[in-house]
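Obj.: predict assembly geometry.
Materials: sequence records (below).
Method: joint structure prediction, all chains together.
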Amino acid sequence: MDELCTGLCRLMVDSGADAGLAQFMSLLVGVLLVSGVPLLTVILLIWIERKVAARIQDRIGPNRVGPIGLMQTFADLLKLLGKEDITPTSADRWLYNAAPLVSFASVVLIWAVVPFTPFHYGVDLEIGALFFVAVASFGTLAIMVAGWASNNKYALLGAFRVVSLLVSYEVPLVFALLVPVLLAGSMSLLDIVNAQTGMWFVVLSPLAFVIFYVSSQAETGRAPFDLIEAESELVAGFNIEYSGMKFGMFFAAEFLHVFTNGILMALLFFGGWLGPLYYESPLIAFGWLGLKGGLIYLTTLWLRNTVPRLRIDQIMAFNWKFLVPLSIANLILISAALKALQEIGWAPRDFVGAGIGDLIPTTIIMLLINGAMAIYLLGFLRKRGQEARRESLTARAALAQAAAE
Amino acid sequence: MELNAITIGFVVFSIFTLGGGFGVVTTRNLFQGTIWLMVSLFGVAGYFVLLSAPFLAAVQILVYIGAIAILITFAVMLTRSVTRIKSRYVRLVPSFIGSLALFLVLLLGITVPIFGGQLPEAAPETVATTRDLGAALVDENGYVVPFMLASVLLTAAMIGSIFIARDENA
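Observations (raw structure tokens):
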């Protein structure tokens, strides 16, 4: 009981509360905090997203409600809550109403394993990284259910192609996720961060980070993979029949998912809370994590507002013919190189506690491997691009000739 | 049976598993049937958590709900009359007897050591970690042969499906 009962719980026991009750209460507070913080964060995130999008598109963005438009999201929230709660007559009532909940829960559940500082986390699961992937699959399920239960053919078509996209991009995502797990020798997010004291994993394996970045962009359904919300093609997609707060929950889930991915990438590849003076105070550690996660989050917004949407066949071809083989090759090369380096004693057996000096040979060799792969890939892409250009030119020439005749 | 968190969890996950299974066989709607199947599989994942096997629980969710059940929903949507199945299954008595017999055989096989089984052992004190599981899979005294056989089988199935699905003209 003693090691389970610290902090708030200890305080309650000392002031005369029942030990069991105190433990339950402190756990409850913890659960409420872990699930409540993301809920509040998302309100701020929507404002940030709208402001950034507006600046990129040379607009001002929300600026009327509150100082610099900060209260705009609250106004929107009230508006969404006040809307009529419609369930289409021919919809499958239970599944239709459950889908937004499952969608949002799938994102909030990820926060259960996210460590904010070395000492503040919901739960340190031995299988943290796997938990994240497993929970994310509920999001896919929610979209499928939403599309079907709405009983609308646009919703169903939208759900179909989104689910095929999500299921496909889960493959490179998991393969890229395996690289930090492999380097740290653990699936616990806490261990993964601790293994990066010597060197961030993004330096050891930049390609894995790029693969993870691209596929998580696809997983959240952001441009150039924004088939989830193709307004111009399928009216809106899987959520067309949803109104009011149910629609709002799908959106909140999406916004939160993007930020969650930013934090996850910071934890997996950028050393999480590691930074100057992080051990001085949990607040500094948390600040480092927030800073890194926030910067990655901003780049995803930047990307979203810069690139156009790809066609579904292009997205699928890119995934299955490029990203998946690349992620498999990357994983095999990294694991082989790591094992070889450990055998000849150039790399430490255990990355936890390894200083920067121990990791210099590993870093150099890993960077060389990644660089060689990147050069090969760029050449490959260049060739493919040239071929595609030549084909389109000959097709255009043939068309022009036919028109002339 | 003493009332603690594990007992409550067991009851809840049993309700999930059995209720989901019941839903699968009683619903007239194929899509809802797959959702019930997922509920049932989720309950099984809960059992794994109770048995201190978090890795298996996560894999259960990831593989069964995230991949297989999603594929089943795809397959269901390609069938005709997803929602209103008119035909009824009529051989209720034989199927009742058959399933009851199967249940009894399983129950006896587990509880009574008549098939040369051992007496139920006490659960080991140490909890097997994911690391132990991984080591057992590649250990020559462990499960390396079944593991390799399963990999070969899966690869063969994958190649077979690609071969069948391939366009003849391409």
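Conclusions so far: The longest helix of chain B spans residues 54-77.
To do: check interface contacts against the pulldown list.
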